[in-house]
Design brief:
Blueprint (H helix, E strand, L loop, with lengths): L6 H7 L5 E5 L2 E4 L3 E4 L3 E7 L5 E5 L2 H10 L1
Antiparallel strand pairs: 1-2, 3-4, 4-5
Protein name: HTH LytTR-type domain-containing protein
Organism: Paenimyroides ceti
Amino acid sequence: MLKNISFEKLQEILPKQQFCRINKGELISMGIVNFFSHDEIVTTIVNENQKPISLVLSTNYRTEFLNRM
């Protein structure tokens, strides 16, 4: 069952070129990144108000994210 899988295991399963961990609780598909700043990623996915969803890019995962971009 996927609800019991660890982030580490999920990262092993998902294609490394397409997914990246961006903070303690989130992995994203690199294909949804619209733009990013030092600590924020704005996605191509919109919320119920038709505004792009923004996610926090933590310091611990920033280097890996930037390397993949």
